[in-house]
Each structure stands twice: as C-alpha cells, then as structure tokens.
C-alpha cells in the first residue's frame, strides 16, 4: 500500500480517506458528519500543510485560518466549508467541490483549481495570484477585491460573478464565460 508522510508526521494511506496522526487512524470520508467535525477540530489545532486529503469528504467543515499550504485536496468535497483566512497557497484543489464555500481572505496563490466547482463561493479579498482556474466554475462567486493577477481563468465560467475591485492584471481570460459579470472600474 502506498503511503505518504507529511512534514507534520501524518501518514496518508493509498485510499486518501484515512489519515494517521500520532499512530491513530482517522477516517476523513465515508461517515459525513463525524469526519467533518474531526477535520474541523484538526484544522484549528494541527498543521495540515502538504497533507494528502484527496477525495476527502469535508462538506461544511470549519477550517478557518488553517495551514493547508501545498495540501492535496484533489476531488475533495468542500462545499459549504469555512476556509476564511486559510493558507491554501500551492494547494492542489483540481476538481474539488467548493460550491458555497467561504474563502474570504484566503491565500490561494499558485493554487491548482482546474475544473474546481466554486459556484456561489465567497472569495472576497482572496489572494489568487498566479492561480490556475482553468475551466473552473465561478458562476455567482463573490470575487470582490480579490487578487487575480496572472491567474489562468481560460475557459472558466464567471457568469454573474462579482469582480468589483478585483485585480485582473495579466490574467488569462481567453474563452471565459463572462455573461452578466459585475466589474466596476475605480473612479466610476
């Protein structure tokens, strides 16, 4: 069985649904409410940076201010999760379900969010510098005041997104769907 050892001493087994902390096996997927409560408690107390939690069920988890730098959350279920102020820089969130998630003030610089579902997510003031949002669903998302400098938004769905005050300098918007997007320039 393939295992991954994080710098914090956590071991993840091949299924990526179990996490070992100090020799205890913690199930992060499969039992919904218990797994989310456990993940919420862990996120506030223990470093989760560079931990592999792909496919984890963290629906509605409270991970505010969590250190998730470089974490692998590929295809994780994070809909409705509280991630405000979390450090997700360099995290792998490709295919992750983040609809309705609270990511205000989160650091997502250089994060991989390819094909992630961020429908109606709150990214107010989030740092998405050089983030890869290729084909991501950002429809109805609040990106007010977000830093999207150099971000790859090609093919992204930004319909009805709020981009008021967002920094889009150098962002790639080729093929992005921009119907009814709210963008107001400074001084308007």
Question: What would you say this structure looks like, in words?
Answer:
The structure is a single chain. The chain has one helix spanning 33-45; strands at 3-5, 11-13, 18-21, 24-27. Helices cover 7% and strands 7% of the residues. The chain starts with a strand and ends in a 143-residue tail after the last helix. The longest helix is centred in the N-terminal third of the chain and has 13 residues, at 33-45. It has one helix and four strands, in the order ββββα. The model is unreliable at 1-31 (pLDDT under 50). The chain has a single domain, classed as E3 ubiquitin-protein ligase SopA (Pectate Lyase C-like, 3 Solenoid), CATH 2.160.20.80. With 188 residues, it is mostly loops. A four-stranded antiparallel β-sheet has the order 1-2-3-4, with no helix packed on it.
